[in-house]
Predict the structure of FAD-containing oxidoreductase.
Amino acid sequence: MKSFDAIVIGGGQAGPFLAARMVEKGMKVALIERKFLGGTCVNAGCMPTKTLVASARAAYVARNSAVYGVNIPGEIAIDMKVVRARAETVTMNARNGLIGWFAGMDGMTVIYGHARFEDPKTVSVNGETLTAPRIFLNVGARPVIPDLPGINDIDYLTSTSIIHLDTLPRHLAVIGGSYIGLEFAQMYRRFGAEVSVIEHGPKLASREDEDISDAIADVLRSEGIDIHTGVSDIAFARSSDGITVATDSARIDASHVLIATGRKPNTDDLGLDAAGVISDKHGYITVDDRLATNVDGIWALGDCNGHGAFTHTSYNDFEIAAANLLDGADRKLSSRILAYALYIDPPLGRVGMTEKQARASGRKIMISTRPMSRVGRANERGETKGFMKVIADAETKKILGAAILGIEGDEVIHGIIDAMNAGTTYPALQWSVPIHPTVSELIPTVLGDLKPV
Ligand SMILES: Cc1cc2nc3c(=O)[nH]c(=O)nc-3n(C[C@H](O)[C@H](O)[C@H](O)COP(=O)(O)OP(=O)(O)OC[C@H]3O[C@@H](n4cnc5c(N)ncnc54)[C@H](O)[C@@H]3O)c2cc1C
Ligand SMILES: NC(=O)c1ccc[n+]([C@@H]2O[C@H](COP(=O)([O-])OP(=O)(O)OC[C@H]3O[C@@H](n4cnc5c(N)ncnc54)[C@H](O)[C@@H]3O)[C@@H](O)[C@H]2O)c1
């Protein structure tokens, strides 16, 4: 049996950085990864998809260039092989960067293989056993495949397999209308495919307020995406030239089907029982405010603890664990203000509470909205879809949450993220002097328009 000061299982967005910090402190660390360093984000998530989104945007801009007085003669053709190769290059550069970084680290042992607990201090991998007084779980999540009629008779795509596609589908049917589904739906529409989104909930992106969900649907419909919400009885069958997707209200003659109905944690094959680690009914590992599990010496970080489903929340788990265990700090999960973006174009930047959540909290609230058509920068760029919305506490004057669906919304939201993290009140922000002409320059105006509801 090999002994280490710490074992990290999973090389996603928390584990490798924590492992690196531990060896920096002179500890002997084993990092076990069953597939690729960098995990979902680098290999099958954010990095390849945002690279594909960039190709899709280039196609969109080229097709609409005449509006700007730029005439591109002939048809705008998409070379899917180049599109795919570009995404692979971005992934490989990031993955190889991590591999090189770890190869040069004294005290670090990287092991490729599937790890499983033997007992609370022992893990087996590739037929070997390793032991350490500290074990960190960063095992991430994978796509959920719903048990729908006919699904096993068809070749469906997931978010992992679709990034390797190098041909253009005739008609892509996307099952699930949330982050993954909507990003791929718009992307493939812009590449030139017919696209249908089939969502069983009443709205797209159902975690958002209804006005945001409706505006997202308008953006996607305006590009010719066929959207079906409130759908039931989804069933698949092979057809002569593809796949028929039948629902209670429609029949779609698709060539490809993407399943984008959520993700589940990779905890079912980790031997959690052998270690006595508790998880909830969905398989998310139960952790306290400092990411410790119920078993002394075992922590769970990233998507597998169910407290975040984003790269930045996983990385923040690393920061919390490293600060507490290595720097003598007392950082807590509950201090995190959740922020994220949905990378359709224009993107949705989000932070804190939705209006629905703020109302449900029983606070007296104030709301302000502004359409992007009343933002100079958006007009100058000819991209006026979407709107901004800020929710504040009428008594404390603190900002509770915001949504910016519009050009640069994923960047502009950071002004509000920073203000919320600094605990600033909204009247203080009204005195800032932003730069003209930006989208951000309208934030003080939006705050000035906050009205009690
Ligand atoms: C298509 C898509 C797009 C996304 N886009 C964004 C985005 O734009 N922004 C954003 O913030 N987030 C995005 N996400 C989410 C983001 O990728 C994840 O939240 C993030 O990668 C989670 O990191 P993690 O460290 O928790 O786990 P992961 O990155 O999933 O890493 C877990 C690692 O553990 C390994 N592993 C699992 N079990 C074992 C085992 N038993 N033994 C050894 N190794 C094991 C896995 O192979 C994997 O490498 C996207 C996700 C997808 C699928
Ligand atoms: N921009 C980003 O940060 C980004 C991008 C992609 C993914 N992600 C992460 O990946 C995770 C998973 O994303 P996702 O979009 O797959 O999951 P999700 O849980 O956000 O959404 C799944 C959607 O599928 C629908 N659905 C579920 N079962 C269905 C069925 N049988 N038929 C029809 N619709 C069904 C749900 O109602 C929901 O709208 C997210 O939680 C997110 O954190 C983030």
Observations:
- Residues 80-103 form the longest helix (24 residues).
- The mean pLDDT is 98.
